[in-house]
Amino acid sequence: MSAPHNPVHLAVALDGAGWHPAAWREPAARPTELFSARYWTDLAQEAERGLLDLLTIEDTLGLQSSNPRRPDDRTDQVRGRLDAVLIACRVAPVTSHIGLVPTAVATHTEPFHASKAIATLDYASTGRAGVRIRVSGREDEAALFGRRTFGAFEPDAADGGALTALFDEAADYVEVVRRLWDSWEDDAEIRDAATGRFVDREKLHYIDFEGAEFSVRGPSITPRPPQGQPIVAALAHRDVAYRLVGRSADLGFVTPADAADARAILAEVRVEQAAAGRAEETVHVLGDVVVFLDADASAAAERKARLDALLGRELVSDATVFVGTPAELADLVLEWREAGLAGVRLRPGGLPHDLEQITRGLVPELQRRGAFRTAYEADTLRGLLGLARPANRYAAA
Amino acid sequence: MTTTQKQKKQIHLAAHFPGVNNTTVWSDPAAGSHIDFESFVRFAQTAERAKFDFLFLAEGLRLREQNGQIYDLDVVGRPDTLTVLAAIAGVTERLGLAGTINSTFNEPYEIARQFASLDHLSDGRAAWNVVTSWDEFTGENFRRGGFLPKEKRYLRAKEFLAATWALFDSWRGDEIVADKESGVFLADPDAGRFDVTSDQFDIHGRFSVPRSPQTRPVILQAGDSEEGREFAASSADAIFTRHGTLDAGRAFYADVKGRLARYGRSPADLLILPAATFVLGDTDAEAQEKADAVRHQQVSGQTAIKFLEQLWNRDLSDHDPDGPLPAVDPLVGEHTIARGRASVRMYTDPVATARQWRELAEAKQLSTRELIIEVTGRQSFIGTAAKVADALDEFVQTDASDGFVLVPHITPGGLDEFADTVVPLLQERGSFRTEYEGTTLREHLGLGDARPPADAIPGVDTVRGAQT
Known about the structure:
The complex is a heterodimer of chains A (397) and B (468). Chain A is of the alpha/beta class. Helix content of chain A is 35%, strand content 16%. Chain A has one domain: Luciferase-like domain (TIM Barrel, Alpha-Beta Barrel), CATH 3.20.20. The longest helix of chain A is centred in the middle third of the chain and has 21 residues. In chain B, 51% of the residues are buried.
């Protein structure tokens, strides 16, 4: 059976040499190739061999930092990265089925540019594009643009503080991006030789969005992309971010500590979804897990211990850290699936090692248990996620 | 190849993906999609097979309007520039990838990040055509709206370019050690540090993309004005022109190349590349016949009226395209008829231009449509492959240009015939490469490693990066 009745959705999160800060020092790591096309196409093709639903690519505007609030001057960790949306585009023509979901920052950037960029990724990948939207509240990243100033960033403030405004702006941003995708009806291009008209302008729409931070007139310069609406994703750790997922996303990445926590988080997301009037829409929620995998559990533990020793402390992550065998990870994935999650987004501790353990260890294990596809059953990311191509909001019924 | 042939001045060729102007004939049965990625693959691979220097994409950030409605007679819609170039990098190996990016509705940090990323992902093939605009019409799609006064558009473009240079140069290229044994990833804790203060920008921090293969993308500019020529002489690697005749080309060439010395640059540091259209045939007569047919496809009666309105600045929708030009004069003042179209700025004295058009129409007995066909963009090179190859070579060998940006009129196959018939003749003459010699676009263009400092751009003096 190529598409199990109740399949687990599997995503892999790509970032530099892997999610452990010392991962670049592993024997199999390729730290000098992080800025080459070859490195990213190799990883994407490996993920596709494992039939994964999608890959995400991390990104930030500024240089990486070990401190979530300000830059550091460390020289012992990976620093420097390429634009994630462009990496996804570079990878698109050399892959054929896997979904490509780069990160884009909504703060400081233009929703008009983002909309046509992701639409173009959708064209270049013939329907496999998504985008993971994030915000930036850091003073040092604001200084890279010089247009806005932020006070000290307090990500843990109980009321959300400045974060609430940033997430509200992100929701507006997604609204603009989505309206622009719909600003061309599918059959707007008519090439009518008789009347000399290339387009039917009745099928091109001004979006006339007006929000607190921007207003955008439209229409897009890029016709409606193959999926109609590419997938919008967001990573969420708390209320304001669950609200963004509930209001704006097709896909949420969350960080439960265990299955009970997964249930609780999922309930919060569903409340926000209902509050946004989207109760009937499918919003998949995937649990994030940082993984260190080996066929032999003690090998995985030794590797993780070696990396922690290089780091000088135990790895701390926002997500659950899993160390063990692919079969043990399959147990956790299915347990979280039981708790209601649609699947997991796995963050390989080290690349390419832990990605290969996912594609060559975890995937066959889940297939044996009848919980994962044995061949790609669709050509688009929406198709892989079981989402229909949506109607255009501007088209007359 | 003999030594003599090797020393012959080499032609540089770029391929312009057919754009959203009336020169692109969408009604032809051979015309394919302007948006599907397959069209870009086909076009780029043809250009690469023919050993072209680079592929070129134009850009406009708002759909054009005329008479208050979206303009529907030409191709409408195109992909995002940088992303489609990154995808094309995946289906080509040597072809340069040039994109037009606006300096008004973007920010230097983001654009520098994207071009440096494209340069990495293409192994050194990125080029940037720096353009500027100021209009509120385009601004309605962006956060700041029409924030830029018209008189500041060049200032912003110069400061924007200088700011990106500070960013590109902020990594020296030797910082990434990645020594697994010692645990040193970065040799310099300050890598990427920059600080830019100017009229338009006040930005600082650390740039997140390490030095790319070309360090900076190849810089392209267009612009015929005094200010535009001076900007190009100070900072561009190639300049686009519209000078179609040998004499005009030579005059422009001498003028612009003559400006380089004052910026410490040599004539070889800036290439002059006029836009060129072509129609090929088995005989010159057949080519001429095809050219006339193409011109009639490009300028329908309706299109002729729209052109007329762009000069007259009036609604002329009731005018008969097959009759004479309107008796009434153009409306002088703020242009209100056509929006999102840079070309209307060429008409500095519409009444005088209308008078010239009337005189020409009268002398040659031309209808409105025939007149518009006559005065707007006739093809630059028409004839057999041999005749066109001769003409192109003469242009370059007599210093009217360093090559051409070819603008085919059919997507995506409009370059095929040129690639198959004209390119081999240019190669036989020793005027055009038979194989790529280098890997980067800078190498294809014969540009050295010299990079003008940011403060060499006139009017820019307050930009600094840690390494410059």
